[in-house]
Write a structure and sequence with these properties.
By secondary structure, this protein is an alpha/beta fold. The chain has helices at about 10-30, 45-60, 75-85, 105-110, 125-130, 140-150, 170-180, 195-200, 245-250, 265-280, and strands at about 5, 35-40, 65-70, 95, 160-165, 185-190, 205, 225-230, 230-235, 240, 255. It has two domains: about 30-115, Leucine Dehydrogenase, chain A, domain 1 (Rossmann fold), CATH 3.40.50.10860; about 140-265, NAD(P)-binding Rossmann-like Domain (Rossmann fold, 3-Layer(aba) Sandwich), CATH 3.40.50.720. The two termini are about 35 Å apart.
């Protein structure tokens, strides 16, 4: 069986070109998509993510502002900034870079964001709308997976999708999106007994557990499509996913590599969400 790597970088490049065209159209209508990012502290990973987000915005013509606060900044200051951005009509998307310092309640901060500007898709109102099948802003990684499934020509309807991991950022929302597209969905997690029994049934297997090379060939069904959401370092410091790609490669029909798979799509979907937030009330662009 010919195994095909699902190239996230290439799909992201294609999507960004499409998004760039939409930004040009919007600007012609007098709408200038703008993203505001709040960063608290000097966590190096967070700072890198924010720089990458800024660069991606710049590349396709989205305006972006970063509000960088000292780690000691109190919660009230951050909440006031969120409210100020909520009230600013020129700001379409608000993103609070997580994790926040321990003295700031991230749930409270996310709750303070206007759901229509919640480009991370974490607000309870957006989660509720998603469950009800209403239009909402969706978390970026699950949205990226859905786009990749479409681009890779994977049929979802009637297929058995098994998700290993039940986080609010990836596991739960991707399960909901697959369900909305007529998949039969099984959630597995750290308390699941006999995990292999379920993973072996998966036509589409999505793994997001944060354990290096956790899924091996004996865990996957012949011809399965596998999405590896994990980003880990192995014992030699090498970047790897939650799936042992080399081991499962002969058995699966398609798989996302790490790096270069799901990762590049996440920031691309942030751009898509910012554009969606900017066009919420523009009929021509409603999906």
């Amino acid at each position: 069986m010919h195994t095909k790597l699902i190239d996230g970088k290439e799909i992201a490049r294609k999507k960004r070109k499409e998004l760039e065209k939409r930004v040009i159209q919007l600007k012609g209508m007098g709408i200038y998509p703008r993203l505001a990012v709040i960063l608290v502290g000097d966590d190096s990973a967070s700072m890198t993510y924010v720089r990458n987000k800024q660069k991606a915005c710049e590349e396709i013509g989205i305006e972006s502002d970063v509000y960088h606060y000292e780690a000691e900044t109190d919660e009230e200051t951050i909440l006031q900034k969120v409210e100020q951005l909520n009230q600013n009509p020129s700001v379409h998307g608000i993103l609070v870079q997580l994790p926040l310092p321990k003295h700031i309640d991230s749930k409270k901060v996310i709750l303070a964001i206007d759901p229509n500007k919640d480009v991370d898709g974490f607000h309870p109102i957006n989660i509720g709308k998603r469950v009800l099948g209403e239009r909402s802003l969706v978390p970026c990684t699950p949205l990226g997976i859905m786009v990749m499934l479409e681009e890779a020509g994977v049929s979802i309807r009637g297929k058995h999708a098994v998700i290993v991991g039940r986080s609010n950022i990836v596991g739960k929302p991707i399960g909901q999106l697959l369900l909305d597209n007529d998949a039969t969905v099984t959630f597995c997690h750290s308390k699941t007994e006999n995990l292999r029994k379920y993973t072996l049934q998966a036509d589409i297997l999505i793994v997001a557990v944060g354990k290096p090379r956790f899924i091996r060939a004996e865990d996957v069904k012949e011809g399965a499509v596998v999405f590896d959401v994990g980003i880990n370092r192995d014992e030699n410091g090498k970047l790897c996913g939650d799936v042992d790609t080399v081991d499962v490669l002969p058995k699966v029909s398609q798989i996302t590599p790490v790096p270069g798979g799901v990762g590049p799509m996440t920031i691309t979907m942030l751009l898509a969400n910012t554009i969606q937030a900017a066009t919420m009330n523009v009929d021509e662009f409603s999906d």
